[in-house]
Design goal:
single chain; 3 domains; 9-stranded mixed β-sheet; 21 helices; about 25% helix; about 20% strand
């Protein structure tokens, strides 16, 4: 069609059906023909992903003469003159049945180009009507990706759903699968970008008819068959909706036409309903929520084809060799309950991330929709009891270490201790019962049921939520008996920390992993004095090295207690979260929902850190291994755990300034004869268990391995190893590496498919 010529603007809805005209070839270097188009005396053929230009010969008798053969979007595009027959490099001819181009259907019109999987006629029509009414849409080319033996029936439904909206819609029926091989449907929850719990899902079977678009060359075919003379084109799928224009701002179509190179960037945002009414299919107007911490946008484009130049290829996220106009950025919204049918909003994205958006509510109103609204949460203005601080923890056979830990935290300002125990054999539970009678702690039997749904720590936290000591505290934290809060500012107390925090209501304390300092024997001495060797501050591997625990203000920003931080953020309160890292710097909003470890951007030790004495002495580690883990009860605390958590390359003595204060409290506790007797009993049980374990060949060999020269040297070298080494274990390290002189930048890793156990 001659350049600049326009077709009549539709005055009534028109829905036309066409076929793509592709077919499987399965020829060497040419697996798929996506489309063949005849226009202006030229033949254009578009071959699918995996095709090779060299599979086509330059010429042969009785074949078309190629003027261009080039790779496009993983496939091959050919332009030729002559009969619809191509010469193959391996010999022989390929007969084509090209379809005559119809640029006149869209000439001079403002159009959308997009794909449809299983969106209904009503859903598709709602988006088209909105674009026509508010953005000036005049025509749409919709590629139906799924086989449809009766496309006219859908066309009739769409025509009826459009009502009196004057649009020309061409429904192009795909006759070959256009998706990426090996992937499941893109409208399955597993492929929904923000869906939680994918590690617990079964991946769907591959389905190239429904999988994410793999044959992007189809966009180039659509340009030459239909859209070369269009005034402007926006790449928008059936589940996409242009965001409302700001007052006085150009529409996306107008921006394309005004852009210097005829190209603009479309930036998409995924949106979600809070809930869809039972028995009704989702509509755009249901989608009133967005993720407050959403970061990944969707890149698409808008183009004025003649202005941008037809020789610039249309790809999935850009127009080749054309720079989008700097001022020409238009927003669109992807309605995820339409794109991924059948899932509720909590399956499509974490409910804790979804917040109502005023603009989306206004959009729903403009669509004549009454969506189900999200609940409104209330934040406590002040915590119930000022700065009164409570720790909730779980213990099993920790008797020798209870009093130092209790004295330390009482000395720095912790007021209340809620302690759950299960299956103790060293007097831990009876000691805690005694301490409870003396008003020092609250002791509870852990409701954990072996083999039940909840692990010990989770069972305890669930029970703790109904305990007055946690409901009424001003500040709370979940932490373990091998973790010590080390406040580095002021006088080392929580009062100094809270004063420095100002209006903040959460502070994360990053672990500093303290090793055994090559101490082999158990001694009844302060942990904080014996073990001062540790990991360096900057150590990104293993990933446990930067785990954190969080002190939180009890103002009900979150729904429940969590191991590392409170869980279940009330998303409409996210702006009330004032969360600092251990150096007093604000944590980014992306951490608010479920982060449990620091990163290079969020770690900090200047104000406070959590000294984590995960291994203690080699003898005590034998007892810890025999006892089992409080959370990952099915995982062995063996040599791999020792190697990951036993760091001795650096030294940190910052906690020692608080030892005199802690010792004074410790001595005061031991001055009570009953407490002294309970402590002595726990010591005797611990020593007896060490002797019992050392009498067995397995534990005796294990102890020898923990304390040999190789392991002691490796536990000063962890900063040289990649994460795969920590996942696989120290046995993958060359046996003589500990004897070498290593350069400061020496690095060693291995190939390993598993992950380190947390």
């Amino acid at each position: 069609m001659p350049r600049g010529k326009t077709t009549a603007v539709p005055t009534a809805p028109q829905v036309l059906c066409r076929a793509l005209g592709g077919r499987r070839l399965d020829l060497p270097g040419l697996p798929l023909l996506v489309a063949a188009v005849q226009a202006d005396g030229q033949l254009r053929a578009f071959f699918g992903a995996g095709s090779a230009p060299e599979a086509l010969a330059a010429t042969a008798e009785g074949a078309a003469q190629p003027s261009e053969i080039r790779a496009v979007s993983g496939g091959v595009m050919l332009r030729a003159e002559g009969p619809p027959r191509l010469a193959l490099a391996g010999g022989g001819l390929l007969d084509l049945d090209p379809i005559t181009a119809e640029p006149e259907l869209f000439a001079g019109l403002r159009c959308t180009l997009g794909f449809r999987l299983e969106e209904s006629a009503a859903q598709l029509a709602e988006g088209l009507r909105h674009h026509a009414r508010h953005h000036g849409l005049q025509a749409a080319l919709v590629v139906n990706r799924l086989p449809d033996p009766a496309p006219e029936a859908f066309a009739a439904d769409l025509r009826a759903a459009l009502g009196d909206t004057a649009l020309r819609v061409v429904l192009l029926q795909a006759d070959v699968a256009l998706g990426k091989p090996g992937l499941g449907p893109e409208n399955h929850l597993y492929l929904a970008p923000d869906a939680p719990g994918k590690d617990r899902m079964t991946p769907p079977a591959p389905d190239a008819w429904r999988s994410p678009l793999g044959e992007s060359i189809v966009l180039e075919a659509m340009k030459w068959r239909f859209l070369s003379a269009a005034r402007s084109v926006l790449l928008l799928d059936a589940s996409d909706l242009l965001a409302p224009c700001l007052p006085g701002a150009p529409t996306a179509f107008e921006a394309c036409e005004a852009a210097a190179q005829g190209v603009i960037l479309l930036v998409g945002q995924r949106i979600y309903p809070w809930r869809v009414r039972p028995g009704r299919e989702p509509r755009f107007g249901d989608h009133i929520c967005r993720q407050f911490d959403g970061r990944r946008g969707i890149a698409r484009w808008g183009v004025a084809p003649q202005k941008a130049g037809l020789d610039n290829s249309w790809r999935g996220s850009r127009i080749s060799a054309a720079r989008p106009d700097g001022d020409g950025v238009a927003r669109f919204l992807r309605a995820m309950a339409i794109r991924v049918p059948g899932g509720n909003s909590g399956e499509l994205a974490p409910k804790t991330s979804l917040i109502e958006d005023a603009g989306l509510l206004a959009l729903a109103d403009s669509l004549g929709h009454r969506p189900i609204r999200a609940p409104v949460s209330q934040v406590r203005v002040t915590a119930p009891t000022g700065n009164r601080t409570a720790i909730v923890t779980t213990m099993k056979n920790e008797g020798p270490f209870i009093l130092e830990w209790l004295a330390w935290h009482r000395a720095i300002g912790v007021d209340d201790f809620l302690i759950y125990t299960n299956d103790c054999s060293d007097g831990t539970d009876t000691m805690l019962e005694l301490l409870q009678r003396k008003g020092l702690v609250q002791h509870r039997i852990n409701p954990y049921v072996p083999g039940g749904e909840l692990k010990p720590q989770y069972a305890a936290l669930q029970a703790a939520e109904s305990e007055p000591v946690m409901q009424d505290c001003g500040w709370g934290i979940c932490m373990d008996v091998d973790e010590f809060i080390n406040v580095k500012i002021g006088d080392g107390t929580l009062a100094s920390l809270y004063a420095a925090m100002g209006e903040a209501n959460m502070i994360s304390m990053t672990w500093r992993l303290f090793g055994n300092a090559e101490v082999h024997r158990f001694e009844d001495r302060f942990i904080t004095e014996q073990f001062t060797r540790c990991a360096p501050e900057l150590i990104r591997k293993p990933h446990q090295a930067w785990g954190f625990k969080t002190l939180f203000r009890n103002i009900e920003l979150y729904k429940k207690l969590g191991v590392h931080r409170p869980k279940g953020l009330k998303p409409d309160l996210w702006q009330d979260v004032r969360w600092l890292n251990g150096s007093g710097r604000p944590m980014p909003k992306e951490t608010f929902r479920n982060a449990w470890r620091s990163t290079t951007e969020t770690y900090g030790y200047d104000w406070v850190q959590l000294n984590h004495y995960a291994v203690r002495s080699a003898e005590s580690f034998l007892v810890k291994r025999d006892r089992g883990r409080v959370n990952h009860v099915d995982r062995d605390q063996g040599l791999n755990y020792w190697f990951r958590m036993n760091h001795n390359s650096a030294e940190d003595r910052s906690a020692l300034r608080m030892v005199p204060l802690a010792r004074a409290e410790y001595d005061r506790l031991l001055a009570d004869p009953e407490i002294r007797a309970a402590h002595d009993h726990a010591l005797a049980c611990h020593r007896a268990k060490i002797g019992e374990l050392m009498a067995t060949p397995n534990y005796r060999a294990f102890y020898a391995e923990l304390t040999d020269a190789r392991m002691e040297k490796l536990c000063r070298l962890q900063h040289h190893f990649g994460s795969a080494v920590f996942a696989a274990g120290p046995q993958v390290i060359p046996p003589d590496l500990h004897l070498r002189e290593l350069a400061p930048d020496f690095f060693f890793t291995v190939d390993h498919a598993g992950e380190a156990e947390h």
